[in-house]
Amino acid sequence: MTNPDTKTDSRPAIVPISYTPEQAAAVTGRSRSRIFKAIKDEELTARKDGKATLLEDDELRRWVRSLPTIGRQPVAA
């Protein structure tokens, strides 16, 4: 017998294509202040929707890959 209070959802997870600065900080492991500094210094491109600031997933990945490396050099994919 199944419990009617148990919710199972077989829908695929939604993968975000953009993040708020707070979410961008969490997914990149950087601080919110560092995200805004990167935008101000034109290291990172953000988009505006009214007052909301959005950062695209691809842009965050590009920015992280552009940061200096230390130790062993990454292997090109």
Helical segment tally? Answer: 3
Instruction: Give the strand order, joined by hyphens, for the main sheet.
Output: 1-3-2
Please summarize the sheet with the most strands.
3 strands, antiparallel
Structural class: alpha+beta
- Cα-atom Rg, whole angstroms? 18 Å
Q: Provide the succession of SSEs.
A: EHHEEH
The geometry reads as: extended
Strand proportion, as a percent range, falls in 5-15%
Which runs of at least 5 residues are low in confidence (pLDDT < 50)? Answer: none
What's the β-strand tally? 3
How far from one another are the termini? 49 Å
Mean pLDDT metric = 90
Helix content: 25-40%
Sum this structure up briefly.
The chain is built from three helices and three strands; from the N terminus they run βααββα. With 77 residues, it is of the alpha+beta class.
Please, could you describe this protein's structure?
- With 77 residues, this protein is α+β, with helices and mostly antiparallel strands.
- The protein has a domain at 18-66.
- The chain has three helices and three strands.
- The chain has helices at residues 21-28, 32-40, 57-66, and strands at 18-19, 47-49, 52-56.
- The chain has a three-stranded antiparallel beta sheet.
- Strand 2 and strand 3 (52-56) form a beta hairpin.
- Helix 1 crosses helix 2.
- The longest helix is centred in the C-terminal third of the chain and has 10 residues, at 57-66.
- It is extended and about 50 Å long.
- It starts with 17 loop residues before the first strand and ends in an 11-residue tail after the last helix.
- The mean pLDDT is 90.
